[in-house]
Amino acid sequence: MNDIVYYALLAPPILIALTFHEYAHALVAYRLGDDTAAKQGRLTLNPLAHLDLLGTIMLFIVQLGWAKPVPVNPGNFRDPRTGMFWVALAGPLSNILLAFVFGILFRLSMQMEVAHPYWGHVLFMLRLAVIINLILAFFNLIPIPPLDGSKIAFSFVPDRYAGSIVQFSRFGPFILLGLIIVGHRFDIPIIWSLIGPPVKLLAALFGNININI
Question: Is the pTM of this model over 0.70?
Fold first, then answer.
């Protein structure tokens, strides 16, 4: 399979995974009383409303990336801490659910005898969809800002540490990007060592997919 075909098959799973991830954030925030994202056009399944250029490029290059963060105003929630917890968790959970659905489709498709010359590409894309969604889910659960895991973790931190959280959040993106670049450049599986085990486990459970990394 040449690079053009590979990236063409990789694009749909990435777009679907990123779009549903951010839509889930916006939907849960809206249901809990915050319409900030909805007013800014983020309560939509249109991929163009959610894509972040750098995050999308990183997904294509190293299969680790992100979309534009959904704007949320915790002050609109009845309980800001609880609200932020569920909004942050909604994104990764949506990807795990998608991985489960694509895993079932992959299992069923593997049992079908289709003579079409491009059927193998369909199977490959379904396999990618399972893996990409799981990677995006567990990558976002890492507790480093601006990833969802940091918001989930911060929802349990007492208010007296709010100043420290703000300071840490400023450096979070640089720490995260540095870990990705260093890991990719020197072939050190820093991020994969954290997310690899659950990704492999659920890929096997959902789609009987064996990831040899």
Answer: yes
